[in-house]
Amino acid sequence: MSQNDNQENEDDESVSNDSQPYYDFGFEQEENSEEFYDAETEDSFDQDDIEGNINRHVFYSKILTNRRYIDVYLPPGYHYNQFKSYPVLYMHDGNNLFDPSISFGGTTWEVDTTIETLINNNLMEEIIVVGINNTNNRDFEYTWTSMFLDFDDRKQGGGGRKYSRFIVNELKPFIDAKYRTLPFRETTAVIGSSLGGLISFYLGLYYPHVFSKIGIMSPSLWWGNGIVFKHVKEIAPNLEIWLDMGTYEYDDEDPDPEENIRNIRKLRKKLIDVGYEEGDNLGYFEHQGAGHSEWYWAERLHLPLLFFFGK
Fold it and tell me: Would you say the pTM of this structure is higher than 0.85?
């Protein structure tokens, strides 16, 4: 199934929403830009907090008409073996992956530390990681249907189709041209959490010819009145899918504290009903006592990494 086989209707009006954490790096939008802007910025990582080699690019998207940081982690052997190419993992909310100086609350996923630990212990293959920083339009970009939220009288979200096209048609070709990647679907993965988990599902649904490994961590399955559940029957059968959720992913004032864990169990069951086999092409984990934050996603990141790239 290609992205054109089953297009979901969506609202395409660009609505900014600052209800989710994002970072404005001062990039001005240039709607008439004729080409991508690629530059190593003068901003650098505090190497005391970073393991491995990470390049930072400023990337302009003609599709989204905005700029953002793209952080690219290179594995330990990248500069030593000039003839080797690597699988690629794309991750949403890239500002929360490596650099505590720009991450939400100063807490990162510790992606670099986790990967290098697994590699050094010969538990996983070396990979390239592309961290796609979020913007002030995070809700818009990470969802493909719009909805009213309790705190706003305007519909929010609905730009996931554009964001997905940005990744597939602009960002991935750039990464494949600049770095020694294995550009095939079998060697290309995506992972996201919360709304990032939601848009990862979308990428698996409409771009299974691009991504074969779909990581869906703590997904916001409530968005769009459960729109994900309506599309499970259309998911390609040849994906590897990782699902997880913490058992404490709710606020104390939440009227339905079991909603998130109930939803992830429902998604697991629906995937099994359409032919996915847990332990084979479906990974599933309930993180006991875990809440909805970067700290907990860092705690269990090794699980989808081993599921997708373990030796």
Answer: yes
Q: Can you give the residue range of the structural domain that contains 118?
A: 39-309
- CATH classification of the domain holding 219: 3.40.50.1820
In a domain, 29, yes or no: no
Amino acid at 204: G
Of the candidates 250, 310, 258, the residue with the CA atom closest to the CA atom of residue 283: 310
DSSP 27: P
Q: In this structure, what DSSP letter does residue 271 have?
A: H
Locus of tokens 């212990």: 121
Residue 181 lies in a domain: yes
What is the residue-level pLDDT of the chain in tens, covering all 311 positions? 444 444 444 443 333 333 333 333 344 444 333 344 444 443 555 656 677 799 999 999 999 999 999 999 999 999 999 999 999 999 999 999 998 888 988 899 999 999 999 999 999 999 999 999 999 999 999 999 987 676 667 778 899 999 999 999 999 999 999 999 999 999 999 999 999 999 999 999 999 999 999 999 999 999 999 999 999 999 999 999 999 999 999 987 778 899 999 999 999 999 999 999 999 999 999 999 999 999 999 999 999 999 999 99
Question: Is residue 26 situated within a structural domain?
Answer: no
Tokens 């809440």 belong to residue: 291
Domain count, the chain: 1
CA distance 136 to 151: 17
